[in-house]
Amino acid sequence: MAFGTNELIIILIAFFVLFGAERLPKLARSLGQAKSEFHEGIKDIKDAGAETEDDLARGGRTESAALAEKAEESGVDVEGKTPDEVEEETSE
How far is it, in rounded angstroms, from Cα 40 to Cα 53? Predict the structure, then answer.
């Protein structure tokens, strides 16, 4: 059931009576900020989704865990080495 013009006018009058006209801009600003944060959160989740798909392609492991497992299988010691150094040694 949609609100008609009369219902919206009654709601606005009730709002002004209860909260006053000076609170309306503050409310609108906080709603805008909440919307912005919501969209930012959705964007972060979508960005993390790409990483999750890559992790699933590696059998549910992160890139560093997959590299450590590969190094262990190759008998390479990973202590004190950068991921690039470990990758070079495992590919040899």
Answer: 20
Residues 13-33 as b/e (b if ≥16 CB within 10 A, e otherwise) read eeeeeeeeeeeeeeeeeeeee
pLDDT on residue 35: 96
**Sequence spans of domains, the chain:** 24-91
CA distances from 23 to 9, 11, 15, 18, 28 (A): 17, 15, 10, 10, 9
State the Cα–Cα distance between residues 9 and 13, nearest whole angstrom: 6
pLDDT digits (tens, 9 = 90+) for 34-44: 999 999 988 88
Dihedral (CA of 73, 70, 65, 85) sign? positive
Give the C-alpha distances (Å, rounded to integers) separating 49 from 43, 46, 57, 90. Answer: 10, 5, 12, 28
What's the pTM?
A: 0.40
